């Protein structure tokens, strides 16, 4: 089946959002989704609501036969085969369809991790890097749920530093012999195949497909975890594990391309899934705060509870805008190559790599949004939020892992700014030119009147933010030069600004489209966006000023701050009023109103 959602022929460069005027890049929004895709999302919703959520407790008692049964059922209705090409009995849908499914799956933390490890990082290495024989052998069975997959990269001594792996592979006649122990492997308790990384002759980082019955393979006992207790996490022990020579995946010494390429997809999926999880949290939090009374009033009548509800919904709206924009770019880039091309896997992986900055933004932004939402949900429930009898306690624990796996949020922050700088140095992104333009504009900054449309003021705010980020980042490059990448706090500030700019811009463009098309929820979309931009603008402003102080002082600092001030003509509106309006809509609707399927 071909991709069914509208795609554009304009291929966007990853990271270019920072340097391009708002509205000039194409942007996919959830309001553009095709009916076919929505249909698929609804099937996933029926599955999660009908089959998974009613077994929430059993899943979280680590009932692995149940998880296996549910994964196989998901396979029967096509939910494991979305990203597998048709030639190997997959549905070959676009990534937008897989995102809709993922949003639904993410409503049960443990199951979504099992599902994600199986269909994402466990299966996709074979989709993108497998030989024809490997794809024919494994993909139809993975598509049907006859085989379940895992991904084994991490070791006890090498987590963030994945290339420091000690597991070895040595060729012995017609077999590879692997030795080593992989740590924290999701699905290890039941997976049939493991995409496993090892160093050939202790040197050349490579990937192998290992089957559970291969001699020399065993798994440790289940880890006792803080959350996602219903997902299987074990060590994978390889003791003279002998596998046929043709189980090498990709090329010897090119394992990093598989490990990091697949992690880019994994990061995107993880962050995007977090917004699906957040939708469940707001649902039960709205219900509870309408039912529980204190001082003879429902909790949701109090301003400080309304503030939390409004912020939860705002993060969901903005998160959706970020996710769908990014998946739009990825799908457009993927549609440039066909699976009938013998180099399709490599071309498609390259297309995904192009958006590694955006994938890291989705991961960090989404996981931190869900952590915040889950935490505030506990707060809304008060003491009951602290009790295992009520849903917030589990979600609070379950979501904590999202900031750790698929590259910790620290590592992803370093990647966001680091990749941008690398691309700018190579001349792939015109950062220098934009820096020169911004320097010239200090005496004549963009005026509010230059922006048009229903969210003109917010567009102005986004453009001012880009200039503040550029001035501060340019100063950091100028002062620290090559040493900048080692100055992690400065890099993180740059990344924080980039994330906020991407988030603001994605929401502003989405809201503008909704307003211009007379969308039913256009007014609340405007309020979400105004609320977010009001506060994010000030976070960028603060980060830009603090970044300058991190790299210079005295007259240099005064000069830099004066430059930033030139782009600071953006006045806040009342967040309290916006939150009050949003909260009353949420309470009236009894849920997050902007349904996308
Ligand atoms: C429940 C669970 C499931 C998992 N599933 C899988 C799986 O299926 N497959 C798999 O391969 N792995 C899996 N992992 C492993 C996971 O990806 C790693 O835990 C993660 O990458 C972090 O590695 P680490 O735990 O060794 O932490 P470390 O790398 O030791 O990091 C510890 C802290 O130091 C920080 N840090 C490390 N290096 C730097 C640096 N250069 N600069 C700044 N800060 C730094 C980190 O951000 C972190 O805060 C799983 C982990 C868990 C807990």
Give the secondary structure arrangement, pairings included.
Layout: H1 35-52, H2 56-60, H3 64-76, H4 95-105, H5 109-121, H6 124-129, H7 132-144, E1 149-152, E2 168-172, E3 175-186, E4 193-200, E5 204-211, E6 217-219, E7 233-244, E8 248-249, H8 255-291, E9 293-294, E10 297-298, H9 303-334, H10 344-353, H11 356-381, H12 391-398, H13 409-425, H14 431-441, H15 456-480, H16 488-516, H17 522-551, H18 554-566, H19 575-589
Parallel strand pairs: 1-4, 2-4
Antiparallel strand pairs: 2-3, 3-7, 4-5, 5-8, 6-7, 9-10
Helix pairs in contact: 1-4, 4-8, 5-8, 8-9, 8-10, 8-11, 9-11, 9-16, 9-17, 9-19, 11-12, 11-13, 11-16, 13-16, 14-15, 15-16, 15-17, 15-18, 16-17, 17-18, 17-19
Helix/strand/pairing class, anyone?
A: alpha+beta
CATH topology of one domain: Butyryl-CoA Dehydrogenase, subunit A, domain 3
**Class of one domain in CATH?**
Mainly Alpha
| Mean pLDDT reading | 96
- Say how many strands there are: 10
- Small molecules held by this entry: flavin-adenine dinucleotide
CATH architecture heading of one domain = Up-down Bundle
SSE string: HHHHHHHEEEEEEEEHEEHHHHHHHHHHH
Which parts are unreliable, with pLDDT below 50 for 5 consecutive residues or more?
none
Q: How much helix is in the residues?
A: 55-70%
Principal-axes shape call: globular
Radius of gyration: 24 Å
Q: Major beta sheet, specifics? A: 8 strands, mixed
N-end to C-end Cα span: 20 Å
Describe the structure.
The protein has 597 residues and is an alpha+beta fold. Among the domains are: 255-409, Up-down Bundle (Butyryl-CoA Dehydrogenase, subunit A, domain 3); 413-589, Butyryl-CoA Dehydrogenase, subunit A, domain 3, CATH 1.20.140. Helices cover 56% and strands 10% of the residues. It has 19 helices and 10 strands. The protein has helices at residues 35-52, 56-60, 64-76, 95-105, 109-121, 124-129, 132-144, 255-291, 303-334, 344-353, 356-381, 391-398, 409-425, 431-441, 456-480, 488-516, 522-551, 554-566, 575-589; strands spanning 149-152, 168-172, 175-186, 193-200, 204-211, 217-219, 233-244, 248-249, 293-294, 297-298. Strands 1, 2, 3, 4, 5, 6, 7 and 8 form an 8-stranded mixed sheet that branches. Strands 9-10 form a two-stranded antiparallel sheet. Strand 9 and strand 10 form a beta hairpin. The longest helix is centred in the middle third of the chain and has 37 residues, at 255-291. The structure holds flavin-adenine dinucleotide. Residues 117, 151-154, 159-160, 184-186, 225, 228, 233, 401, 404-405, 408, 410-411, 488 line the site of flavin-adenine dinucleotide (FAD).
